[in-house]
Amino acid sequence: MLQFGASFLSKLNHIFLEGSFIFALPISVISIKKKASDENSKEMVTYFGIDSTNSESKSIAAKYDIIPPYTKTDNEPVAHPSESLIYMIKGKLRFYATKNDGSNYSFDIAAGDFIHVPAGEPHYAENQSGQAAEAIVTIPSPKFVN
User: Fold this and answer.
1) pTM score above 0.90
2) Cβ-based neighbour number of residue 93 at 10 Å
3) Residue 13, phi then psi, degrees to nearest 5
4) In this structure, which long-range contacts are made by residues 22-29, counting pairs with CB atoms below 8 Å and at least 24 apart in sequence?
5) What does the alpha-carbon distance between residue 45 and residue 2 come to, in Å, rounded to a whole number?
6) Class of the domain covering 36-145
7) Residue 45's beta-bridge partner residues?
8) Contact residues for 85 (Cβ-Cβ < 8 A; gap 6+)
9) How confident is the model at residue 52 (pLDDT cuts 50, 70, 90)?
10) HSE of 24, CA atoms in CB hemisphere, 13 A
11) Residue 51: its pLDDT value, please?
12) Domain-by-domain residue ranges, the chain?
């Protein structure tokens, strides 16, 4: 398990404030406030923080996902043209993926975990618990994909 020093954790406190998500870049600061009803949704709730529509980001987007109990992130596995990063803020998910060689694998992820998803690797996650899960996810920005 990774351990972080107080300086790193102090910086994280500047990112997460009272249930809000703030993702800061030198040029853009976007604040997102989740709704109480998000955790009871019947499908995943996504808030885009930084992307090509609201910042100077050319190739990457950062989003805040809330995965309610007993839901999936996607109906079918999704692959992105570039690698993705996931940071679990809250809860637990079962993560499913297919390697580029065609082999399938799955594992559990929980709050505090970082996940790297290679480019082109189809994946999705499922919340099999009675508690909502929350994650920060980086994916290709729409301008990069199109």
Assistant:
1) no
2) 25
3) -65, -25
4) 23/49, 23/50, 23/62, 23/136, 25/50, 25/55, 25/57, 27/55, 27/56, 28/54, 28/55, 28/56, 28/57
5) 28
6) mainly beta
7) 66
8) 114, 115, 116, 117, 137, 138
9) confident
10) 10
11) 77
12) 36-145
Tokens 């019947």: give the residue.
42
Mention every residue, 6+ apart, whose C-beta is less than 8 A from residue 13: none
d(CA 83, CA 121): 8
- In the chain, the amino acid numbered 100 is N
How far is residue 48's CA from residue 61's CA, in Å, rounded to a whole number?
Answer: 7
- Phi and psi dihedrals of 132, rounded to 5? -65, 150
Return left, alpha or beta for 7; rule: phi > 0 is left, psi -120 to 50 is alpha, else beta.
alpha
Closest alpha carbon to 71 in 132, 112, 14? 132
